């Protein structure tokens, strides 16, 4: 018997990096330092409280969580969005899926500039939107003239920009971001007469950016068609929690609210996320260390003869390899799992603990 599976999904594979049981896992950009005993206790208390009311549905509007996200952003970036500018879901991946449900779909286009996060094309597929991949420059940075031509020709409903970009690690500067926002503000998307293209800046790795690199949050006031997404999966050391959030114009948040599933954020998720935000500094205690270790790892890889892309994230894209799969396997055989992703001749490694970084360098060796 054949199931009525949609033709769009035929021969498609589920997304995901290999989850292999090796000692050193540097392939999914997690923070390698688990929560401290103090934070775990606070989370346990919060979860325990939430369990008392487990017979009830959670707060649909997650009011407490919104307030805490706002306070966290004020301290992290100097921008304090009001709670009605904030949206949260089970990972920023769910937010992006909701964004496409609300703003893309059949007859509309979703665009990004590759190489970038490979999930964007999957959300497009899942919402029957047309995915358009614009090209980057030779250094994998945005090529603004080309981007402008691509956007004006394709007229996408949504433009995704990851900053810092995954898998290359490079952040956008304000000039680039403003240029894209200005271009998008002039474009009437295909399938949405009278509207303007949305620009979604995916800041999953924002907390790892180098000193002086701005956050797109600072531009929200000026550009109503800007959406900034963030996550607790990376710097926040809470990938297991599944909590992502977006900041945008309050009217857009109201529209997102329409397409969410009922009670999409469980009371346990909300309680533990609130406890995590109360202890943001503790959870991110190792971020400064990770940034310093990243910079040191970049230098070391360059010393060893590799080509390394500038990183504002907690991972590094390096090459070049004529056969990167063989290189990936060679490193894996020594107990270190990295990621086979990004530009054709490159591999990506997550910055781990000091011993993990050492194990990676030992396994990798020198570029001959
Ligand atoms: C890891 C990552 C995310 C985070 O996804 P979550 O669903 O929040 O875990 C989002 N965007 C990019 C580019 C990422 O690399």
TrEMBL record:
The keyword Secreted does not apply. It catalyses: L-histidinol phosphate + 2-oxoglutarate = 3-(imidazol-4-yl)-2-oxopropyl phosphate + L-glutamate. Its EC number is 2.6.1.9. GO terms for biological process: L-histidine biosynthetic process. Keywords: Amino-acid biosynthesis, Aminotransferase, Histidine biosynthesis, Pyridoxal phosphate, Transferase. The modification N6-(pyridoxal phosphate)lysine is found at residue 234. It holds the Pfam family Aminotran_1_2. Pathway: Amino-acid biosynthesis; L-histidine biosynthesis; L-histidine from 5-phospho-alpha-D-ribose 1-diphosphate: step 7/9. GO terms for molecular function: histidinol-phosphate transaminase activity; pyridoxal phosphate binding. Residues 24-363 form the Aminotransferase class I/classII large domain. Its cofactor is pyridoxal 5'-phosphate. The keyword Metal-binding does not apply. It comes from the Bacteria. Homodimer. NCBIfam families: hisC (TIGR01141), PRK03317.1 (NF002877). Belongs to the class-II pyridoxal-phosphate-dependent aminotransferase family. Histidinol-phosphate aminotransferase subfamily. This is Histidinol-phosphate aminotransferase. It comes from Actinobaculum massiliense ACS-171-V-Col2. The gene is hisC.
């Amino acid at each position: 018997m054949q199931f009525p599976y949609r033709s769009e999904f035929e021969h498609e594979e589920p997304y995901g990096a290999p989850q292999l049981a090796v000692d050193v896992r540097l392939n999914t950009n997690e923070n390698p330092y688990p929560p401290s005993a103090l934070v775990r206790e606070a989370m346990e208390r919060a979860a325990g409280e939430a369990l008392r009311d487990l017979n009830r549905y959670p707060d649909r509007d997650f009011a407490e969580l919104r307030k805490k996200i706002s306070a966290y952003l004020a301290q992290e970036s100097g921008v304090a969005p009001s709670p009605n500018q904030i949206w949260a879901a089970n990972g920023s991946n769910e937010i992006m899926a909701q964004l496409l449900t609300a703003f893309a779909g059949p007859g509309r286009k979703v665009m990004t500039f590759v190489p970038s996060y490979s999930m964007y094309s999957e959300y497009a597929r899942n919402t029957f939107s047309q995915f358009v991949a614009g090209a980057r420059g030779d250094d994998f940075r945005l090529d603004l003239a080309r981007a402008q031509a691509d956007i004006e020709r394709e007229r996408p409903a949504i433009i995704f920009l990851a900053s810092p970009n995954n898998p290359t690690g490079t952040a956008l500067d304000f000039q680039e971001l403003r240029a894209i926002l200005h271009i998008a503000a002039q474009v009437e998307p295909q399938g949405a007469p009278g509207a303007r293209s949305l620009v979604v800046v995916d800041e999953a790795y924002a907390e790892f950016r180098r000193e002086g690199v701005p956050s797109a949050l600072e531009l929200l006031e000026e550009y109503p068609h800007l959406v900034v997404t963030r996550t607790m999966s990376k710097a926040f050391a809470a990938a297991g929690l599944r909590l992502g959030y977006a900041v945008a114009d309050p009217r857009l948040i109201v529209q997102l609210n329409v397409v969410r599933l009922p009670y999409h954020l469980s009371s346990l998720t909300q309680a533990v996320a609130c406890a995590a935000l109360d202890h943001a500094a503790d959870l991110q205690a190792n971020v400064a260390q990770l940034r310093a270790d990243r910079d040191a790892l970049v230098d070391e890889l360059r010393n060893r003869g590799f080509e390394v892309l500038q990183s504002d994230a907690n991972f590094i894209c390096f090459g070049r390899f004529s056969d990167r799969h063989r290189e990936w396997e060679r490193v894996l055989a020594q107990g270190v799992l990295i990621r086979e992703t990004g530009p054709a001749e490159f591999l990506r490694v997550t910055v781990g603990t000091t011993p993990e970084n050492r194990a990676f360098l030992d396994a990798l060796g020198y570029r001959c």
